[in-house]
Amino acid sequence: MAEIDICLQDIGNRITELRKRLGWTQEELAEKADLTPQFVSYAESGKRAMRPENLLKLSKALNVSADYLLTGEIIDKDLLILSDKIKQLSPSQIRIIENIVDQCNDLFN
């Protein structure tokens, strides 16, 4: 049972982190995901398991895969999408992206 609780808390932490990174309130996320603010609050706190369709609603609103919310890992599909987007950029834009990633790595590591 403890493993499930930890997993729910981890999912909630990822939802909270993504929401805050986007600069949204719980109410704004709830509106974008077609859920109630109370549900978002419970999901972020890790106190409530959610049905798969609600996990999908949150993942779509936050623009991440459901796998990311569940595991915290970016799956190959996500990397392919990102790679396709980067291929459309100019070399100078790619260098900017590389600098941003380097700064994020320095900040979070």
Largest sheet: none
N-C termini distance: 31 Å
Uncertain regions spanning at least 5 consecutive residues: none
Overall mean pLDDT stands at 89
Pattern of helices and strands:
HHHHHHH
Characterise the protein shown here.
The protein is an all-alpha fold and 109 residues long. The chain folds into 2 domains: 2-71, 434 Repressor (Amino-terminal Domain); 76-108. 77% of the residues lie in helices and 0% in strands. The protein has helices spanning 2-21, 26-33, 37-45, 52-62, 66-71, 76-87, 91-108. The longest helix is centred in the first third of the chain and has 20 residues, at 2-21. The radius of gyration is 16 Å and the shape is elongated. InterPro entries: Cro/C1-type_HTH, Lambda_DNA-bd_dom_sf, TransReg_Diox_bact_type. It comes from human gut metagenome. One of its GO terms (molecular function) is DNA-binding transcription factor activity.
